[in-house]
Prior knowledge:
Helix content: 40-55%
Bound molecules: glutathione
Radius of gyration: 17 Å
Order of helices and strands: EHEHEEHHHHHHH
CATH class of the largest domain: Mainly Alpha
Largest sheet: 4 strands, mixed
Strand order of the largest sheet: 2-1-3-4
CATH architecture of the largest domain: Up-down Bundle
Number of strands: 4
Amino acid sequence: xxxxxxxxxxxxxxxxxxxxxxxxxxxxxxxxxxxxxxxxxxxxxxxxxxxxxxxxxxxxxxxxxxxxxxxxxxxxxxxxxxxxxxxxxxxxxxxxxxxxxxxxxxxxxxxxxxxxxxxxxxxxxxxxxxxxxxxxxxxxxxxxxxxxxxxxxxxxxxxxxxxxxxxxxxxxxxxxxxxxxxxxxxxxxxxxxxxxxxxxxxxxxxxxxxxxxxx
Length: 215
Ligand SMILES: N[C@@H](CCC(=O)N[C@@H](CS)C(=O)NCC(=O)O)C(=O)O
């Protein structure tokens, strides 16, 4: 049995919840509240000294960093495959995951927003503009990549759900949360909407997790 250290609104934990559901892997959720700073304190730091959510534990061994967790799951349970077969196609899917995981998410993470607010004292409007700008740049890049490589179908790669979709959907959740305009990415949004209707994505949806706080 896996233990997944998760927080409902963490889009990186959301990625892992989706992948585990797609692969039919059951897990025991352990809730770590980011607003209560539980990720920065014991006992969580003993599990993941990076102080970031999520972390996955199997057989007492910890896997940190969501993209590493997704690759770990893919190697551990290869079917259903969340990466394509061809080397070039796999690189394409990984590049899409990295648009989300390396180009958008780190710039808009909680601690970055807090730094803007508390250390640099930027206004609420400027903080929101920052958030939306990096989201727009990243999603434009996602959309352009879908167009340029012509490998997308119903999903980001052909008609198969891959790790690209697993990363995309939580980022769109974040985009909606911060009311980012999404009309400029029709291909990307059609794929995200298709994914959102699939049961493994529905079960991973933040607002219906047990630790979700109604605000
Ligand atoms: N690159 C890491 C990022 C993990 C991460 O930043 N998680 C967020 C929640 S989505 C977090 O723990 N934020 C706490 C903070 O920024 O203090 C991953 O993909 O796992």
